[in-house]
């Protein structure tokens, strides 16, 4: 029993150390570029020594990758929790939840994007989302994978570009909720088009998407 308690304390201490290092990196990226930050400076800001840092990470890039993984995992959690694939005819609940999730971490996104280090984050999200959506849709619709991936990549690139521009703006002209609402409507149109590509079950998906738009207007 004592060993279990000891192990739990070590796990909590380890998680606390990791969070301190990641939080320190985010705060420093708000002040300077990644290339201008040293491990010694980060360790000092995180209140850990260099040895402790290297016990967990091999470089600053590893820390950044960990931060990006945390953010992408939160997006994936929303994607799965809102059952996006089961409700492609009405993606609004998903984008509402996504907007709420992004608001909770808005400052982190702004810092990463303005520091120019967000590319890997969106690459992870787009790659994961593409695979997730294709696997789900292909179970129901007969879609040429090459064509599907091409158009889906275009849609995902547009979505990530829109959010990137919003978080990178000092004074966005629209709210995050309004942006998510706009993207939702574009996704509805994209769902209709992708359904048409399948040649099977398109009518049902198009009808559901059109109904969702009419009810929302």
From TrEMBL:
HTH tetR-type domain ranges (all copies): 15-75
GO molecular function, one term: DNA binding
Gene3D superfamilies (alphabetical): Tetracycline Repressor, domain 2
DNA-binding region coordinates: 38-57
Keywords: DNA-binding
UniProt keyword Nucleus present: no
Family annotation (InterPro entries): Homeodomain-like_sf (IPR009057), HTH-type_Tx_Regulator (IPR050624), HTH_TetR (IPR001647)
Source domain of life: Bacteria
This protein's name: TetR/AcrR family transcriptional regulator
Organism in which the protein naturally occurs: Candidatus Lachnoclostridium stercoravium
Native organism taxonomy: Bacteria, Bacillati, Bacillota, Clostridia, Lachnospirales
């Amino acid at each position: 029993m004592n060993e279990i308690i000891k192990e739990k304390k070590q796990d909590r201490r380890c998680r606390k150390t990791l969070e301190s290092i990641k939080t320190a990196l985010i705060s420093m990226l708000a002040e300077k570029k990644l290339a201008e930050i040293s491990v010694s400076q980060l360790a000092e800001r995180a209140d850990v020594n260099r040895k402790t840092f290297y016990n967990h990470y091999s470089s600053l890039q590893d820390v950044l990758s960990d931060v990006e993984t945390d953010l992408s995992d939160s997006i994936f959690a929303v994607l799965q929790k809102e059952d996006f694939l089961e409700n492609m005819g009405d993606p609004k609940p998903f984008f509402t939840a996504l907007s709420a999730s992004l608001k909770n971490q808005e400052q982190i996104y702004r810092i990463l994007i303005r520091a120019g280090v967000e590319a890997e984050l969106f690459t992870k999200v787009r790659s994961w989302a593409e695979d997730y959506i294709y696997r789900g849709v292909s179970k129901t619709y007969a879609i040429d994978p090459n064509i599907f991936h091409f158009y889906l990549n275009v849609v995902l690139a547009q979505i990530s570009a829109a959010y990137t521009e919003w978080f990178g703006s000092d004074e966005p002209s629209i709210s995050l909720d309004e942006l998510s609402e706009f993207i939702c409507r574009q996704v509805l149109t994209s769902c209709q088009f992708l359904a048409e590509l399948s040649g099977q079950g398109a009518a049902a998906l198009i009808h559901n998407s059109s109904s969702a738009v009419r009810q929302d207007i």
